[in-house]
Design brief:
about 100 residues; about 0% strand; mainly alpha
Length: about 100
């Protein structure tokens, strides 16, 4: 993964954003079942920033690579579904980076 290219940075962000989303599966039970809200604040803030950066990098790559409307919607929508960014990385971003 070449993080010096726009698609490489998007791939890295997709993985980090996906991990931060999945961490809510740990921090939400900690907050609501165990009464420990602090980890949720940290994960929430990190996830918020990574989500925004992911969307910005998606728009950057949409413009650079002239992705179709369908691919653009799938790439942007992937951030709304658990594991979505991992699938987008494998199906959309990785093939693009090898060409």
């Amino acid at each position: 993964m070449n993080i010096k290219s726009p698609i490489g940075r998007l791939r890295l962000l997709a993985i980090l954003e996906g991990i931060s989303y999945l961490l809510f599966g740990i921090t939400m039970p900690m907050k609501y079942m165990l009464g420990i809200p602090e980890p949720n604040y940290v994960v929430g803030m990190a996830h918020g920033w990574l989500f925004i950066l992911y969307l910005l990098f998606c728009f950057q790559n949409i413009m650079i690579h002239k992705w179709s409307f369908k691919i653009s919607v799938l790439a942007l929508g992937a951030s709304l579904v658990p594991f979505g960014t991992f699938v987008a990385d494998a199906k959309i971003f990785k093939p693009e980076s090898s060409s």
